[in-house]
Structure formats: structure tokens, C-alpha cells
Write a structure and sequence with these properties.
Helices cover about 40% and strands about 25% of the residues. The chain is of the alpha/beta class. Strand 9 (about 165-175) and strand 10 (about 175-185) form a beta hairpin. Helix 1 packs across helix 10 (about 255-270) and helix 4 (about 105-125) packs across helix 9. The longest helix is centred in the middle third of the chain and has 18 residues, at about 105-125. It is globular, with a radius of gyration of 18 Å. Catalyzes the transfer of endogenously produced octanoic acid from octanoyl-acyl-carrier-protein onto the lipoyl domain of GcvH, an intermediate carrier during protein lipoylation. It comes from Bacillus carboniphilus.
């Protein structure tokens, strides 16, 4: 069977509003049949705190800490909880929900897309596996998260190594298209991360932070060596090709496409109306 060719975009380090606008633009273009299914890798400049579509920004986020740390801030079009995008590889996958490889349910689509991430970790020599919440307590935790921090718990078919979460993802379906994007942690600073969220008091904050350290881990800590961003890109590009049985063809945006994304970024994802809507 001949492998399908998908588009591959490495957009480098972009502003938080440009990153979210480009993901939305790719979804729109794919829904209109203008582009094939696409996988994108990107980084953040500046380092950025993103929150899920349904989170209450002013209630959950310590904006003084965001300002003090000179971080960007943006609301994602997908669900999930807060993520500090810094020393990581961020990916997005854009594919029609009627694609022959895509199951109908969100959970099973996660599984299929995450095969690419699973294979990427294997390329780095790490034995990753899918998280499958088994106990009733774990399942309740997905519906009622203990904190606003994304890596505080694993959802269905997210990636864990040695029992701890190494990648977090979120998904939305709009205009008949699946957008899944997520973070593959290379390094992590738990103290910095937890300073960005509001807690009832310091005791609760410290308890949550200690619990978090048992649930999440950075790739470099597991590999016991420094994996560069370029090595990670190579590994996960190959991982997606193997996991989804596809070929990835590099592509760069043209000037017309860049202008469209920049306009969307300015009008939507840089606006207080969007970022503080909840």
C-alpha cells in the first residue's frame, strides 16, 4: 500500500498569538481542501503560558508572576489546562475527521495520532507507553482536575515513561477537521511553573507541586542526557511517519499565507477579548 504524503511545517520560534493563529489557519485551509493533512513543529518566543479554551484566566492565573517572568500569554482554541511552553518541542496535527485513519471518537483519535509521539520517543531510545486511566479515582480526576496545571495528570492515551507523563496534548474538532496540538517536554522547572497559578495558600501549592513531581517528567531527565531541539525534531518527524504510516514533505508558508496568519493573530489571539473571555 502506497504511503500518503502529508505536509510538514517547521515554523520555528514564533509569538504566542502567531502560533495559535497558524494552527487555526491550517485547520481552515484543510477544511477548504486547500492543503493536505499537516504536521507542524514549533517553539515559542517569548516563553509562554497557554491556557485551555474553558479555563478562567483571572481566577486561575497569577498574572503578576507572568509579567515578572516576562512570559507571553495566550488562550488556546483547544481544551485542557495551563502549559508553560519553554524548553519543549510543540507539535500540531491537522487532519480531516473523515480521514480513513481517523476513528470517530475523540479518545480513539488521540490514540491514533499519539502513535506518532510514541514512535518519536522510541527513536530517542525511551520506552514510552499510553496512559490508560483505570481506577475510578483516576477517571474522576479527568473530569474534576485537582489543579490548573496540564501535566498534573495523564488523560486517555497521553504518553508516559516509567509511570510519569512526558507529553501533554489537547484536541478540538471544527469545520470537519481535527486539530490536536501538544507539548513534548525536554526540560522543566516546576518552581517556575507553579508560581504562575493561583492556589488557596502556600501549603496547598507545595503539596500540589510535590505531587506533580511524581506525575510528570522531562525527556532529558529520563534520557539522562541533553537532547537538543533539532534531535527531538528529527526523532518525532520520523516517529510521525512511522506511527501514522505516512511520508512528510517539508513546506514553507508563502507571503500571502503569512499575511493571513499575522492578521488573524493580531485580531484574535493577541486580543484581550479572546484571552480574557472567561
Amino acid at each position: 500500500m502506497e504511503k500518503e504524503t502529508w505536509r510538514y511545517i517547521d515554523s520555528g520560534y514564533c509569538s504566542p498569538e502567531f502560533n495559535m493563529a497558524l494552527d487555526e489557519a491550517l485547520l481552515d485551509w484543510h477544511s477548504q481542501g486547500l492543503i493536505p493533512p499537516t504536521i507542524r513543529f514549533y517553539g515559542w518566543n517569548p516563553a509562554t503560558l497557554s491556557i485551555g479554551y474553558f479555563q478562567k484566566a483571572k481566577k486561575e492565573i497569577n498574572f503578576q508572576a507572568v509579567k515578572d517572568q516576562k512570559l507571553g500569554f495566550v488562550r488556546r482554541p483547544t481544551g485542557g489546562r495551563g502549559v508553560l511552553h519553554d524548553q519543549e518541542l510543540t507539535y500540531s496535527v491537522i487532519v480531516h475527521e473523515e480521514h480513513e485513519q481517523m476513528p470517530k471518537t475523540v479518545t480513539e483519535a488521540y490514540r491514533v495520532i499519539s502513535e506518532g509521539i510514541l514512535e518519536g520517543f522510541r527513536q530517542l531510545g525511551l520506552k514510552a507507553e499510553f496512559s490508560i486511566p483505570r481506577s475510578e479515582e483516576e477517571k474522576r480526576g479527568l473530569k474534576n482536575p485537582r489543579s490548573s496545571v496540564c501535566f498534573d495528570a495523564s488523560s486517555w492515551y497521553e504518553l508516559i515513561v516509567e509511570g510519569r507523563k512526558v507529553a501533554g496534548s489537547a484536541q478540538t474538532r471544527q469545520k470537519g477537521v481535527i486539530l490536536q496540538h501538544g507539548s513534548i517536554l525536554l526540560n522543566m522547572d516546576e518552581d517556575q511553573l507553579f508560581d504562575l497559578f493561583n492556589f488557596p495558600n502556600e501549603r496547598v501549592k507545595e503539596r500540589m507541586k510535590q505531587g506533580f513531581k511524581n506525575k510528570a517528567v522531562a525527556t532529558n531527565d529520563l534520557a539522562k542526557r541533553e537532547i537538543s531541539i533539532n534531535e527531538a525534531k528529527t526523532a518525532f518527524k520520523k516517529g510521525f511517519e512511522l506511527g501514522l504510516n505516512i511520508n512528510l514533505e517539508p513546506y514553507e508558508l508563502n507571503e500571502k499565507e503569512k499575511f493571513y496568519v499575522q492578521k488573524l493573530a493580531k485580531e484574535k489571539y493577541a486580543s484581550d477579548e479572546w484571552n480574557f473571555k472567561r
